[in-house]
Amino acid sequence: MASSPTFAPLISWTLLVFQSLEFGHSEALTNVSCFGMEREALLKFRQGLIDHSKRLSSWTSKDCREWKGIECSKKTGHIFKLDLRNSCFETSPNGYMSCLDKSSLAGKIHASLAELKHLKYLDLSLNKFSKQKIPQFLGTLQRLEYLNLSSADFDGNIPHHLDWFSSINMLSSLQSLQLRGCSLEKLPHSLSVNFTSLRFLDLSWNLINSTIRFYNFSKLQHIDLRVNHLKGAFPRTLFDNNQQLSFLDASRNLLGGQILKNFSSLYKLRELRLAFNNFDGDVGNSIHGPLESAQTRQLESFKDLEYRSLSQNSIWGPIPVTLGELSSLTESDLSHNKLSGNIPESIGRLSSLEMLDITNNSLNRVVSESHFANLTSLTELSISSNELVLSFDPAWVSPFRVQWIDMSGCDLGPKFPLWLQTQRNISYLYMSNANISDEIPNWLSDISLNVIDLALDNNMLRGPISRLDGNKMQLLQILSLSGNGLSGSMPNSLCAMKNLILLGDNRLSGQITNSLCHMKQLEVLILHKNGFDQVLPKCLSNLTNLRLLDLSDNNFTGEIPSFGRHSRSLVVIDLEKNSFTGGIPSQLCQLNYLQFLSLAQNNISGSIPSCFNGFLSMVGDINYQSYWMYSPSIIVMVNTKGTSRIYDKTLRFFHSIDLSANNLNGEISEELTRLVELQNLNLSRNNLSGKIPSNIGIHLHTVDDESVYRGNDELCGALF
Ligand SMILES: *[C@@H]1O[C@H](CO)[C@@H](O)[C@H](O)[C@H]1NC(C)=O
Ligand SMILES: *[C@@H]1O[C@H](CO)[C@@H](O)[C@H](O)[C@H]1NC(C)=O
Ligand SMILES: *[C@@H]1O[C@H](CO)[C@@H](O)[C@H](O)[C@H]1NC(C)=O
Ligand SMILES: *[C@@H]1O[C@H](CO)[C@@H](O)[C@H](O)[C@H]1NC(C)=O
Ligand SMILES: *[C@@H]1O[C@H](CO)[C@@H](O)[C@H](O)[C@H]1NC(C)=O
Ligand SMILES: *[C@@H]1O[C@H](CO)[C@@H](O)[C@H](O)[C@H]1NC(C)=O
Ligand SMILES: *[C@@H]1O[C@H](CO)[C@@H](O)[C@H](O)[C@H]1NC(C)=O
Ligand SMILES: *[C@@H]1O[C@H](CO)[C@@H](O)[C@H](O)[C@H]1NC(C)=O
Ligand SMILES: *[C@@H]1O[C@H](CO)[C@@H](O)[C@H](O)[C@H]1NC(C)=O
Ligand SMILES: *[C@@H]1O[C@H](CO)[C@@H](O)[C@H](O)[C@H]1NC(C)=O
Ligand SMILES: *[C@@H]1O[C@H](CO)[C@@H](O)[C@H](O)[C@H]1NC(C)=O
Ligand SMILES: *[C@@H]1O[C@H](CO)[C@@H](O)[C@H](O)[C@H]1NC(C)=O
């Protein structure tokens, strides 16, 4: 009753405004065409820009409220929003974006923009302002609440010129500041700032290497500092008086120390990402510091934590029992650290946990059913590269259905783990080097209906390979069985598989039949180091998609199939260490993309065909950059006992011909001088005459066999 009189006038006032808007009763409030001054300012701003794709073609009409990217206040008519973000599409989940360059705005940002005094929202992200400074006048836009200059090709790398920052610092209304990928290198030593309203700060993908001290960020909810060069201790002041932080990403920096000792104020933290840093210290003292101190409200404070990544640091010590208290945790990534001891059984209480990754630590005890008792949400489990022994009751029925499971390097044996029988939705199953000494169970094919990648290499699997039923594994792309004791000949059903087969280092034998040629999609065939001793079917040369053929280290006999016109996708042919006879078929010269040819250690005779300049890739006539780009599936790893072969994109830098240890005769052909991209040419131990052309190897960049087979870390890093 008492409140109705106060409400009544308020309501009618609102109605009045509404009416005036709709029907134009009040000139002052409605239908103000855009303000002349603001229109002029925008036109000047536009003049400074280069707009190839004519994105701003609507910027001509009299009323600038109709212009693209502009929004005006219905009440005052003033422009409050300018959104000129370029359109992009995401290409990868790591945050790299690929933008439509042609729709980029370029040129200069005219200071006339400062006339838009009522601007609250400014987004210039993903354009190409080609290395100009972040404009200082932005600091005069006092009403700005949202500023997004991400990836707009600004050059923030102007030492001792932090003017832009001090001006932005004046923006006490700013709530959201995004300077992702702005080449920022320096920030003021201490960000003692006026950003008292700031809730969202993105400084990721810059080059910031100065120490940041955050003060007065008491409202910050989201801070993204990932991929910078931040060094030293974590900017703890960030936490001072901040009870709002729910998202913190400082991954991929050079931060160190025992940062997490005091998280007690971060009641609302939901996501914590600190992977790829140098943090060390006892894990119990860090994230769980507050938990150890028990009971109190600190414990509660982490109830909301959903995602946590501390991967790739140097955190040590046992996983605290209190981990089981983080009841909201959905993802926990502790991989690549130095954790030791056992995994606490309390982990089995995390019924929200979807992803657990503790790969590559020194955890070393027995894992049993109780560790998984209530993990009903688990879909990704990675526990490889520890010293764990998995010991489950054979009758155990797991409460989860995993899609990704990596238990490589764990002791799962000697029997093939029976509990996997109920896992009917696996896409990736890795159990390499897992001390399994058993036959392949018949049910493995039944649980593999969705499996894309199956790795069982380096166990002691025995019995016939025909236990694997390719008909049931229609999605299979990679099969690693190397380093086992499997026997028998390849079942036709495996030959029906569409993509990749890896079967190195077994005791497979017998004949490769014509049925292999029905695998029209086959891109990679590796039968390295088995016991094959027959003639290859001629039709192999008709596999039009075959890129990589490794039949090395068997005892194949007969002639080399005439790979040529129909197999022009071939990049790698490795037939070394066999008993091939006959000559080198001249059709080979049609393999324009060939980069690696080894026929070494066979009984091949005759002369070297004088057409090797048909290997255009070796001549340097192929834009293989684009070729490789469109052949992503060439990335293949073959693990054999002791050595590991990786055929990946590093191959694109390697060109090699090895014909050594055969019965070749005749002159070394002139044509070989054209193969300027070759880094390795081995013709030794034949009966050839003439000289090895001297210009071979001009592209040699100390690449040796290691780099072909092991790959180059940096390049692999870029790949995965
Ligand atoms: C109000 O603005 C619209 C365009 O936004 C225009 O068509 C109309 O004539 C204007 N009315 C008055 C009274 O100015
Ligand atoms: C800022 O701009 C970038 C690039 O357009 C975009 O990905 C990001 O989501 C924007 N940030 C916010 C909070 O809108
Ligand atoms: C904070 O802003 C006020 C004006 O809004 C200004 O006078 C003061 O210098 C600013 N402080 C810092 C540290 O930038
Ligand atoms: C930051 O990097 C620049 C060059 O990139 C270097 O000159 C400077 O010394 C670095 N600063 C710190 C604090 O490491
Ligand atoms: C900002 O932080 C500093 C250091 O903690 C403090 O002295 C100052 O009072 C704070 N200013 C505001 C406006 O909160
Ligand atoms: C942890 O934070 C609390 C509250 O902010 C503070 O009182 C205490 O001194 C801090 N402890 C350490 C070790 O920083
Ligand atoms: C294990 O982690 C360390 C870093 O802690 C890293 O150097 C090493 O390469 C990792 N090993 C594997 C197999 O991933
Ligand atoms: C598993 O969850 C159920 C229901 O939430 C609960 O009753 C049971 O005690 C839990 N068991 C363990 C081992 O946490
Ligand atoms: C492999 O399993 C056997 C039992 O089958 C066990 O004695 C041995 O220690 C295990 N080896 C490794 C490396 O785990
Ligand atoms: C099976 O896995 C797929 C992803 O591979 C997922 O989308 C689906 O929900 C899963 N189904 C069940 C029943 O778990
Ligand atoms: C390869 O395919 C072509 C056309 O399909 C066919 O004529 C030829 O006989 C095949 N060659 C072999 C060796 O199978
Ligand atoms: C390879 O086959 C030839 C004859 O076909 C045989 O003489 C030779 O012993 C075999 N070599 C091996 C390593 O099996």
Automatic annotation (TrEMBL):
Keyword Acyltransferase, does the record have it?
no
- Tell me the compartments it is located in: Cell membrane
Residues of the Leucine-rich repeat-containing N-terminal plant-type domain: 38-73
Q: What is its main location?
A: membrane
Identify the Pfam families for this entry. LRR_1, LRRNT_2
Would the keyword Magnesium be found if you checked this record's keyword annotation? Answer: no
Q: Which InterPro entries match?
A: Leu-rich_rpt, Leu-rich_rpt_typical-subtyp, LRR_dom_sf, LRR_N_plant-typ, RLP23-like
Q: Which residues form the signal peptide?
A: 1-28
GO cellular component terms, A-Z:
plasma membrane
Q: Which key words tag this protein in UniProt? A: Cell membrane, Glycoprotein, Leucine-rich repeat, Membrane, Receptor, Repeat, Signal, Transmembrane, Transmembrane helix
Q: How does it sit in the membrane?
A: Single-pass type I membrane protein
In the record, the note on similarity to other proteins reads: Belongs to the RLP family.
This protein is called Leucine-rich repeat-containing N-terminal plant-type domain-containing protein
Tell me which species this is from. Answer: Eucalyptus grandis (Flooded gum)
